[in-house]
Amino acid sequence: MINFVTYFAAACDPNKTFFGLPAWYKYLSPDADALGNCAFKLQNINDIWLIAAALIEMLLRLGALVAVGFIIFGGVKYISSQGEPDRTKNALGTIINALVGLVISLIAAQVVSFIAGKF
Predict the structure, then answer these.
(1) How far is CA 8 from CA 19, 24, 117, in A?
(2) At residue 110, does pLDDT exceed 50?
(3) Mind giving me the DSSP string for 72-119?
(4) Rounded distance between C-alpha atoms, residue 26 and residue 113, angstroms
(5) Containing H/E element for 64?
(6) 62 Cα distance to chain centroid
(7) Domain tally, the chain
(8) What is the pLDDT of residues 36-83, one digit of tens each?
(9) In terms of residue numbers, what domain contains 100?
């Protein structure tokens, strides 16, 4: 099982991102073999927690991207409301809720990153 997990880390750069999402091995330290290839070996239970923290951070950042999408969606609803009070109120509610979700998601991602960085 442990060797199976090590084959999914193709790049050695844990700071490399895909659409702002961190790699699952962001908090692990790589071990280079004789050929210079990267290998991540799980040595204790803390390594599993670090992988879980990276996955949680991925989900939180994905939630932030969804919140930005809802802000855009709320803006389109606001523009297309044509001054009708109910539709305008609904659009503003969508924008405010998305902003609150964005702030919570960003703060939670930073907290997870801070805690995982201390391990």
Answers:
(1) 19, 9, 22
(2) yes
(3) HHHHHHHHTTTT-HHHHHHHHHHHHHHHHHHHHHHHHHHHHHHHHHH-
(4) 10
(5) helix 45-79
(6) 5
(7) 1
(8) 566 677 778 888 888 888 899 999 999 999 999 999 999 999 999 998
(9) 2-118
